[in-house]
Amino acid sequence: MRIYILDTSVLIHDPTALFRFQEHDVCLPAAVLEELDAAKQGISEVARNARQASRFLDDLLHGHPPGALADGIPLGGAGDPGAPRGKLRFETETPGRGDRAILATARAIGNRHPAVRVVLVSKNINLRIRAQVAGLTAEDFESDRVIDDIDLLPTGLEEIPPEVVAGLQATPEGWLAALPEGASWWPNLCLYNEAEGFEAVVRGVERGRARLTPVTDFRGGRAVWGIHARNREQNFALHLLMDPNVDLVTLIGAAGTGKTLLTLAAGLAQTLDEQRYREIVATRATVAIGEEIGHLPGTEEEKMTPWMGALMDNLEVLTEPGHRGGWAQAATAELLQSRIKVRSLSFMRGRTFLEKFLILDEAQNLTAKQMKALITRAGPGTKVVCLGNIAQIDTPYLTEATSGLTYVVGRFEGWPHWGHVTLQRGERSRLADRASDIL
Fold first, then answer.
1. What is the pLDDT of residue 336?
2. Which of 23, 55, 140, 235 would give a disulfide with 85, using CB separation of 3.0 to 4.6 Å?
3. Range of 316's domain?
4. What is the CATH number of the domain that holds 123?
């Protein structure tokens, strides 16, 4: 049995952390309770999580007289085999506030229980460093980690052996392929064989055989709003973005790989040309990479416009004179922007998007809860596209393994209406490619 001392940052990151330690006890210092109380005001994600953590504590304390708290209170029900079996304890004897009080609490509990391993759990890396310097055991809270190694995150593409290509059985819809030994294929997995020039998408897997359909060629043939794919990954991405059977698309890639341009082109084509969606809705996490410049004036859309610079830059490319033929040459940027709505994450709760093309930009900066809150806004006929670069996370307490974008990719794997592609090759400029490699 261990005693885990939780820092405030853990409960603000995930209020359910109280119930994540199985048979081990959880201890909350008095300083953490004070910090939760101070953080509860407002409508931010931090305030909401602080209030939720307080509700959990109130529910756990209900029915227990003050004198019973000294021995701890059960964290889970006795009849539930999946519930935590440890106890919740409170440490109120250590005075002070902030990190010093939390460190003092950990030291005091360790002295009081020398035979039990006491671990301080915090999302604050500096607090963990201070704890280790002081001779205490400290760990990061990683129960929300989707995978242990970010290199194991699926890319959405897989090269298949030549013998599998040679053994394909033609059908009216595409091909039937024998599943290679040890392979784990799922719907909308993108398959290719470079030597054979073969590209296809998995539509289903049954009894060791996979149904494959050919991929639309967007490189030299068909264009999407005047945009051609420049490499294999972009071609697969456009195929998934244009597929009406795929409700959720996740695109991961470094800057310049074409995530936003491809998505916006596919959205415009399906909104204005094919009338599949009524409008495009775009949002992103408003996390600055430099110093804050203060509050922005204007309406919700005007406040969000500076944050959507990448979207507007790509919209300028798609509205250049002569970029497309037909009536689109006369389409002004104002006309297109009237079908593109920029919305803030702050006002998404409670909304339902019907027949919308929803773009979640910079999704690597969103938590798993924020991603859930956004994707569950999708109503009938809505397609959601999540874009991001997990190597550029600007949100505190998030890592590549715990990002909401990583969470979505890991949880949706295998769902027949989800598609994913990791874009590898930059197409911005030779200068940008070189800078990405060496800087």
1. 67
2. 23
3. 228-438
4. 3.40.50.1010
